[in-house]
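Obj: model holo form, ligand = protoporphyrin IX containing FE.
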Amino acid sequence: MRAESPVRYDADRELWDVFRYEDVKRVLNTDERFSSDPATMPGFEEEIADSEGEPPPVFDTMLFADPPEHNRLRGVVEGFFQPRAIAEQADRIRELTEEYLDDIKGGEVDLVSEVAYPVPVDVIAMMLGVPTDDRAQFKRWSDTLIERPNAKTEAAMEEFQQRQQQTQAEMSQYFAELIEARRAEPQDDLITAIIEAEVDGHRLSEREMVGFCTLLLVAGNITTTNLITNAMRCFTAQPGLLDDLRTGDVKLSTAIEEALRYRSPVQALFRVTTESVELSGQEIPAGEGVVAWLGSANRDGDVFDRADEFVADRRPNQHLSFGHGTHYCLGAPLARLEAEIILSSLLERYEAIEPVEADLQPIRSSFIYGVEEYPIR
Ligand code: HEM
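Output (holo structure tokens):
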């Protein structure tokens, strides 16, 4: 695709696909031409509207806003996600990870359900200040929100949409109640901090806060889960690498970056053109949906040597797995820290880690890459 049709129109999906590294970067770098705001997509707002005709609060977040609105929404919370602020969470993340690992009795385990999924959910819940009892509910919401629509029949599609809307509504109500509780009784947690945060006289509205909590749950969990599983798949596939990581001959953080590149958890990002744009000699008219393929950009041979190989100590590594430009992942420092803590804990505890022969199933999502289960022993 990168060589023959780097920018192509897919008439079935009515979308443009962009495959080359430089083009993907340009799409993500040029907000004024490639918008993240769903309001710029004709008909989209009606499609996502709930029974009251309103889009769910998650659409009132930075992820779906263009500058200058984006900067207002991001500016209020950005400080909490800087590497230094996130590093303060390391001990608590390590404790949580150890608790999950203590529960593993040995033998065969599914890395996804035993570790890679529950730890990031708990970390977000812990940071926000969500009671531990609600974690199973969190997982169910997160699962539903990333599900791929089953468009085979109209009834199935309708059922899917209803399930999505109900989940959105349940989550919104849940977070609204939690925000109310923290307003009445502030605590040392992220929800309280978001309520109190003010930058240049800006505070978040209640709807924006609910949206932001939802966004953290959706954007932060499934992505980190898949980073951990994808990384372990890369590590176990290369003889001797687990030992090199244990001894430090290959730096774990460098290998994690390569796993991000080689098996990118987020494969694609969506934008809408605000005016007609030319990319790799192809004219894309205004008002069209564009899919920027991070997974493909990360394998672009013009940028990466041995692009289709997993090179554990690859440096430099300018992958686009956390996006690029204005919307560059707010949670990247947290995701990196979690991955490093969880993977190093696994390496320390288990002398031998090997995959169990299994038919790995891709997760049901069209833009997230990972597997449903990853049995190891
Ligand atoms: C944005 C990937 C973990 C919160 C993004 C974007 C990507 C991404 C590609 C850009 C979206 C766009 O341009 O439209 C990932 C990956 C992760 C991860 C691969 C794990 C390996 C997290 C975590 C959090 C988080 C742990 C929060 C706790 C966000 C937020 C945005 C974002 C809030 C929106 C930023 C903005 O619009 O300015 N992420 N993410 N992500 N991510 Fe992550």
